[in-house]
């Protein structure tokens, strides 16, 4: 038996359990990459080839690449048995996590992977859960120093100690974990549905509140074209070849700076010279902004400071006797789907100033606009509270998931595990 090292703190185990090194739990196998220049190694490949990009779930349903039998004969990529457990040992993702997954089919792996095929007396799903429970500690403890790409020290990993229960106990633990993780997943799905539902309801509520697409608007309201309620313009970009055009001076707004709310910080600034030698112009705080180009069509913002914009943004300076700036922002946000649809009518997604000049907006009296803005702000506050609660619940579900794994494989669930027939993670 190999020397057991790695996790030094070892609590007392239930009767019948023992500490065993990973190298003694299964057959250890590395991988390799067949030459990309050899078409016969890849074309028509039928043997799954596991790489870090496949390790996105606890149980692999397939791989993005496959190799041929000739590739196996001509490279260090060897076939391992079904129900082996794969780990990533070299990848940038190791900066944040250590992916562990069960591979329920015969496969090969690349050189950034290590695969453990369990020996007799070791349940493959139990081994996967045990390694997932220890993953963060393994990642931190076995990390190689001085490597360009984050890497795990394989000898240290092979010597890592796991608390191993008898086989029948392993299977009871797997059943228990599977049930608990399924319940957690159901809860996470409900949280995702709640998030989607509140987004849909907000959109519908805002549309109804503004009477968009509703011909039966109150008789005190009017329908006006955008140029009737705001002055429309677009900005410009100073020559990038002139370094003196960029630097301390004036905030310069690009689409990436639009936040759907107040814009007070920009990635870039332009100088007085840049402003004077481009079509950009200084706009006052309170100017409403709308993205006209690319995948961000319809993104909005409202200037919280005096600033200029580039040509991809339409700037709307509200006529103060006609429309409230924050009310106009709400109308544009509620109309985003319309802008996106209009923008994708041509070869390149964009909406033009000409198109926007024909857009009509519902215009209630100014007092009513201010009341609508207030009501939406109240609703936004409630939504923010709900979103925080959902985010906290998701974070809690993540902690619960990790806690279930740690609790189970350490032996703490030893007396709780019961015979049952839940669907396991890979069945």
Task: Walk me through the structure.
The protein has 427 residues and is α+β, with helices and mostly antiparallel strands. Among the domains are: 18-164, DNA methylase specificity domains (Adenine-n6-DNA-methyltransferase TaqI, Chain A, domain 2); 222-363, Alpha-Beta Complex (Adenine-n6-DNA-methyltransferase TaqI, Chain A, domain 2), CATH 3.90.220.20. The protein has helices at residues 22-25, 69-73, 124-141, 154-158, 167-209, 226-229, 272-276, 325-334, 336-343, 353-357, 366-409, and strands at 18-21, 26-29, 47-50, 65-67, 84-88, 100-103, 108-109, 113-118, 161-164, 222-225, 230-234, 246-253, 262-263, 268-270, 288-291, 300-303, 308-309, 313-318, 360-363. The strands form 6 sheets. A 5-stranded mixed beta sheet has the order 11-18-15-16-13. A hairpin with an 8-residue loop joins strand 15 (288-291) and strand 16 (300-303). Helix 3 (124-141) crosses helix 11 and helix 5 (167-209) packs antiparallel against helix 11 (366-409). The longest helix has 44 residues, at 366-409. The radius of gyration is 30 Å and the shape is elongated.
List the helices and strands and how they pair.
Blueprint (H helix, E strand, L loop, with lengths): L17 E4 H4 E4 L17 E4 L14 E3 L1 H5 L10 E5 L11 E4 L4 E2 L3 E6 L5 H18 L12 H5 L2 E4 L2 H43 L12 E4 H4 E5 L11 E8 L8 E2 L4 E3 L1 H5 L11 E4 L8 E4 L4 E2 L3 E6 L6 H10 L1 H8 L9 H5 L2 E4 L2 H44 L18
Parallel strand pairs: 3-7, 12-17, 13-16
Antiparallel strand pairs: 1-9, 2-8, 3-4, 5-6, 5-8, 10-19, 11-18, 12-14, 15-16, 15-18
Helix pairs in contact: 3-11, 5-11
């Amino acid at each position: 038996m190999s020397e057991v090292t790695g996790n030094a703190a070892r609590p007392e185990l239930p009767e019948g359990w023992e500490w065993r090194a990973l190298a003694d739990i299964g057959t250890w196998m590395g991988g390799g990459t067949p030459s990309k220049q050899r078409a016969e190694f890849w074309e028509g490949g039928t043997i799954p080839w596991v790489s870090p990009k496949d390790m996105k779930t606890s149980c692999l349903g397939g791989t993005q690449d496959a190799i041929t039998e000739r590739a196996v004969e001509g490279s260090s990529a060897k076939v391992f048995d079904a129900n082996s457990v794969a780990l990533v040992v070299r990848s940038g993702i190791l900066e944040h996590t250590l992916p562990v997954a069960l591979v329920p089919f015969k496969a090969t792996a690349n050189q950034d992977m290590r695969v453990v095929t369990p020996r007799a007396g070791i349940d493959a799903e139990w081994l996967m859960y045990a390694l997932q429970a220890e993953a963060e500690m393994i990642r931190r403890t076995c990390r190689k120093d001085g490597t360009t790409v984050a890497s795990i020290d394989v000898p240290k990993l092979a010597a890592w100690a796991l608390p191993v229960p008898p086989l029948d106990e392993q299977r009871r633990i797997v059943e228990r974990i599977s049930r608990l993780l399924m319940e957690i997943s159901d809860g996470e799905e409900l949280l995702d549905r709640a998030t989607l539902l509140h987004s849909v309801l907000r959109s519908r509520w805002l549309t109804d509140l503004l009477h968009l697409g509703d011909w039966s608007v109150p008789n005190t309201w009017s329908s006006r074209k955008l140029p009737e309620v705001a002055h429309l313009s677009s900005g410009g970009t100073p020559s990038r070849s002139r370094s003196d055009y960029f630097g301390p001076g004036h905030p310069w707004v690009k689409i990436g700076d639009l936040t759907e709310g107040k814009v007070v910080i920009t990635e870039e600034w332009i100088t007085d010279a840049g402003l004077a030698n481009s079509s950009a112009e200084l706009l006052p705080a309170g100017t409403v902004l709308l993205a006209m180009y690319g995948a961000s069509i319809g993104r909005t913002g409202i200037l919280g400071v005096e600033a200029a914009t580039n040509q991809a943004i339409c700037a709307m300076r509200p006529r103060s006797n006609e429309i409230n700036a924050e009310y106009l922002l709400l109308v544009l946000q509620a109309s985003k789907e319309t802008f996106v649809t209009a923008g994708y009518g041509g070869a390149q997604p964009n909406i033009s100033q000409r198109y926007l000049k024909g857009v009509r907006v519902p215009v209630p009296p100014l007092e009513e606009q201010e009341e609508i803005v207030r009501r939406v702000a109240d609703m936004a506050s409630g939504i923010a509270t709900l979103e925080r609660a959902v985010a906290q619940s998701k974070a809690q579900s993540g902690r619960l998931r990790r806690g279930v794994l740690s609790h189970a494989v350490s032996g703490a669930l030893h007396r709780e595990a019961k015979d049952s027939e839940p669907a396991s993670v890979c069945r």
